[in-house]
Amino acid sequence: MPLATELDLPRLDHTQPELRGDGYRAAMTALRAGESWLAANPFGFTVLDREAGEFFLRTKDAVFPGLTIGELFGIDQGPLHEEITGNIINTNGPDHRRLRNLVNPALAPRRVERYRPAMRRFLERLLAELPANGRCEFIESFAKPYPSLVIAHLMGAPLDDAPRLHHFSAWIQRQFDAASLLAERALIEQAVADCYSYVDALIAARRSTPRDDLISDLIAAEDQGDRLTHHELRDLVLNILVGGVDTSQSQLAHAVRLLATHPEQWELLRSDPHGLAPAAVEEALRYEPITPFTARMTTAELEYRGVTFPAGSIVLVSAWHANRDGLAHDVFDLAAARAPSRVLTFGAGIHYCVGANLARAEMQEALAFLAERVDAIELDGEPEFGTPSGIYSLEKLPLRVSRAG
Ligand code: HEM
After folding, report:
1. In the structure, which protein residues have their CB atom closer than 6 angstroms to any atom of ligand 1?
2. I want to staple 322 with a disulfide (CB 3.0 to 4.6 A). Which of 42, 53, 252, 399 is the partner?
3. How far is CA 57 from CA 53, 338, 351, 388, in A?
4. Which residues contact 27 (CB under 8 A, 6 or more apart)?
5. Is 182 exposed, middle or buried (0-12, 13-18, 19+ CB in 10 A)?
6. pLDDT higher than threshold 70 for residue 226
7. For the stretch 99-136, what's the b/e string if a residue is b when 16 or more beta carbons lie within 10 angstroms of its beta carbon?
8. Whose CA is closest to atom 9 on ligand 1?
9. Of 241, 149, 150, whose CA–CA distance to 192 is shortest?
10. pLDDT band at 341 (very low <50, low <70, confident <90, very high)
11. What is the largest CA-CA distance in the chain?
């Protein structure tokens, strides 16, 4: 059986700084047009269909490579080391199962419903703050503040702290960006230390005054005996805060960009905002996943489709390709009947995104709200794309928004 390293594979370096926007789309489309289910990248391999993606995400013989990355970069003490070793994404086996059993109920679909009225209040406020002529930079004035307001509300934090939560999230996420880890390590360490202090104060406040919010739910679980230690509780709160801000921001930004550049889809959404918002969200998640490459590292030698992957191989799962598996036409189309569970944008297996219900609710509320209140959205300049390494963000989205009535 050939080793994966011996194969003559197509190659995509997803870390190239110029791989953005149309160039990124063209490179991904070219890989899709090829025959291979496997490609090479600078760290290892990338799998290009859903079945292979699910295999590597679900196998017990592969883990998220966070601990190894930490070791490679010499992160062996200090706040970031504490964060990496306590991160739920780097926890596996019975400890991971116990943590997920505790946190899943707090983010289950019915519990998430209670946050929808607050989401609508935040949307009202953000729309009211847009300039009267409708010309705005959508990221700064809408996509960026919205998820941090939602997370602040969900944590029972003061809403005025939302920009601080955004700062924590943006900096702590940079641990997944090698260049930033090399150049800005001290700033990342500082953000982790500040975030831990902030989270400790929040937990103390909720402990003395419980409310109907996520931290109070988790404290109640902690109080039921030895099911959750204080360190696990603060790490979970930090993981939710960090994982729940720039992800939703970027996915919402891409959804709005796609609607602005597909006016017929925008008109369709406007014909039934609440009925069609869930389909619009699923289609944006499918068409432009903001987590296009989720990483795994094999912990044992693995054989798959006649190829041997030695222990220690890095395998990226391309959600972009998996989400297009079996589709003849690569179009953004709300009306197409596609099973929502088939997208890999939220991952698969034991680490499947714990915030998926919240992210979907946030985006559904935002798209339904905009479709009800806004007649037309158009690009008012070129969007500026981030790179797809890590979270595929939009850095700028200049829009012209015509309010209804
Ligand atoms: C559109 C928005 C989002 C996307 C596309 C997304 C994507 C993902 C993906 C792909 C994973 C799995 C990573 C892996 O297996 O390697 C994941 C895990 C995770 N996500 Fe999200 N996410 C989003 C929003 C959120 C939100 C809103 C929260 C918090 C409320 C959150 C918290 C987490 C956490 C804590 C994990 C780790 C789960 C575990 O290890 O068991 N995410 N997310």
Report:
1. 64, 88-89, 100, 239-240, 243-244, 247-248, 251, 290-291, 294, 345-347, 351, 353-355, 358-359
2. 53
3. 6, 22, 8, 19
4. 12, 19
5. exposed
6. no
7. bbebbeebbeeebbeebeebbeebbeebbeebeeebeb
8. 346
9. 241
10. low
11. 66
The answer to whether the beta carbons of residues 210 and 219 sit under 8 Å apart is yes
Task: Judge whether 250 and 305 are in contact, CB under 8 Å.
Answer: no
Q: Which of 293, 296, 310 is nearest to 345 (CA)?
A: 293
Helices 185-208, 162-173: inter-axial angle, 10-degree rounding:
140
Who's near 5: CB < 8 A, 6+ residues apart? 310
Q: Whole-angstrom Cα distance, residue 346 to residue 361? A: 14
Backbone angles phi, psi at 318, to 5 degrees: -85, 100
Residue nearest to atom 13 of ligand 1 (CA): 347
- For the CA of 87, the nearest atom of ligand 1: 40
Ligand 1 centre from 404 Cα, in Å? 35
DSSP-assigned beta bridge partners for residue 150? none
pLDDT at 253 over 90: yes
Report d(CA 133, CA 304) in Å as an integer. Answer: 56
Structural domains for the chain: 4-403 (1.10.630.10)
Q: For 14-23, 253-262, 278-287, 289-298, which range has the lowest pLDDT when averaged over its residues?
A: 14-23
**Structural contact between residues 388 and 292, judged by C-beta atoms closer than 8 angstroms:** yes
Q: If you take atom 30 of ligand 1, which residue's CA is the nearest one?
A: 355
From the list 272, 277, 286, the residue with the least C-alpha distance to 366 is 277
Once rounded to an integer, what is the mean pLDDT over residues 350-377?
Answer: 96
Q: Is the pLDDT of residue 192 over 70?
A: yes
Residue 154 Cα: closest atom of ligand 1: 30
Handedness of CA 386, 390, 392, 394 (dihedral sign): negative
How many residues make up the chain in this entry? 405
Mean model confidence pLDDT for the chain: 93
